[in-house]
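so my prof wants the structure for this chain in the tokens format not the other one, which i didnt know existed until like an hour ago. anyway here's the sequence
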Amino acid sequence: MSSALLSGVTGGTSVGCHRRAPRPFAPHAPRAARAAAAAPLPATRAAPRRARAPPPAAAAEAGAAGEAAAAAPAPAAGGRMTYRPNSYSELVADAAAAVLAALEAGLTRMEVEFPPIPTNIDAYKGSSDLWIDSNVQLALAGAKLIAASGRRVHVVLPDLGEYARSYKIFKSSLEALGGAVTLGHLKEASAKSGGFDPLNSFQSLFAGGAPDPAPAGAAADVFLVTNVSCVEVPNLEAYCQTVAKGKAFATWNLELDSLRGDLGLLGLPPKDVHYRFLSSIRPVFFLRPRDYSKSVSVAPFIVNYSGALFREFPGPWQVMLKQDSGVYACIAEDVVRYNLGEVKEELMAAMGLNTEEVGSMAAFLRRGYKTSTWFEDDAALEQSKEWRM
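here's what i got, hopefully its the right format
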């Protein structure tokens, strides 16, 4: 696979850096308060890496969050200054190393997220088979690295149909790993609980000789879950309760933010799934590239810029600006996750594009009324803050 993760045009930027002590979690301040506190950096684009000012929080929420932060493993002094994986092998190795570090720290619910194919295609566009097969291939590569630590790893797919197909494609690779890495599917949970699943029974007729994955799932130490859609998230929760049973699992390129955004829509699981379950999954390796553009009154009139939200456990959350060379350079960091609106503001400030007067109509029209999602705003309803840490 190509090593390019994202194509974009940015101005050449030289970014210095400084780090600060981490702060305990507090819910994000309202958009107006954040905008009032924001100040554009000089247009030289040579601003040092900076950290957000701590947003205000209610005393009760801050107290509870402080206890949660005290119990959580402390992040490293700082994250990467720059990041540019030269290949997908390096990217998977970094993700596996972050998972191993999280396992050593005692985490049991983890998220790994990075672009699995070297284009702007996502799970909702292009060839679904390309997306599915790339995720399985990368998950098996990551599982192999995790298994090198002596742990047995079970790569879990949504249903028996995908399991049978992937087993047929990757059978030789699985046999070469000698049982240290195995394949399975979420329907193992219904079989274990004694329930009857008509679809699973029908798909079993076309399993093509794929072995029963239940024994391998019962013997596994770590689970990597991939290719799960929004409608299958409750099955993932049931799997964690009946098969994993407190063992460590990591979601692998599930695009959890996209799945969260679909919750509550007609025919899909309710938002409570996030409050109850998805909020408990901590991102341990997260690379989410984004492309933006802004119109200006002088040539070239349209400025394109790219960046990414990045996190590598145990380091902090980082906003990375993409350079002309393709290197991502850190411009801001925090122990608390940035929402997408904040990521864009940090990138604009570093590029010298945050030129509208704070509180002006032009600033309002550019930012819009809403700069965050419902799951970023509903901190009070979450049973866990892990997904923000």
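also thought this was worth mentioning. The CA atoms of residues 164 and 207 lie 5 Å apart.
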